Amino acid sequence: PSAQRFAVNLQCGPNTNPRDDLALHVNARIHERVVVRNSLVSGQWGPEERHGPTFPFVPGQGFEILILAESNNYKIAINGQHFAEFRSRTPMERVSYLSADGEIMISMINFEGGSHGMPGMHAPMMPGMPQQPYPAPGMPHQPYSTPGMYPTQPGMGYPTQQGMGYPTQPRMGYPTQPGMHPANYGHLSPKSAP
User: Fold this and answer.
1) Number of structural domains, the chain?
2) Residue 184 DSSP SS3
3) CATH number of the structural domain spanning residue 186
4) Taking the model in full, what pTM does it have?
5) Which residues form the Galectin domain (predicted)?
6) Inter-residue contact 102 to 113 (CB < 8 Å)
7) Which residues, listed in sequence order, are joined to residue 15 by a DSSP beta bridge?
């Protein structure tokens, strides 16, 4: 597959041009075999963080990214393994959107913990509906290939899903799905620390 890069962002608003601040930017650069972490504040990128274990992505294969928001940093796990931590450079209470850019197909987004006493939620993605943050209840679960914006504030009456938490044991089984070309696809699961 020809995927070159994709990014997952915890964003402080819905705007992409000019882009609102990014509290966390996780950028998988397949051609460089590196996962870069950074933030964008007032239109300026901070210093890139590139250290970490072996590059965890294989083009065309499924994956799962978990992001655990703690009081002053984010923990990032990929495919059930802790990958990196990123010290917060922007107040976490400003984060209001999850965005995805690049060559990625999202199969599910799951928010756990919520905010302001609200429960987390599960938001299956729908093909052809990039402007709608969550699909109508009762619609079938199908992945779609699109960059997009997804509000991080749950509470729209959709069912919650019992989460598995941040990994302490490896989890296996991120199968590829036939016909998912040209890039990567995955399951994104931002979480709030208890």
Assistant:
1) 1
2) strand
3) 2.60.120.200
4) 0.67
5) 1-112
6) no
7) none
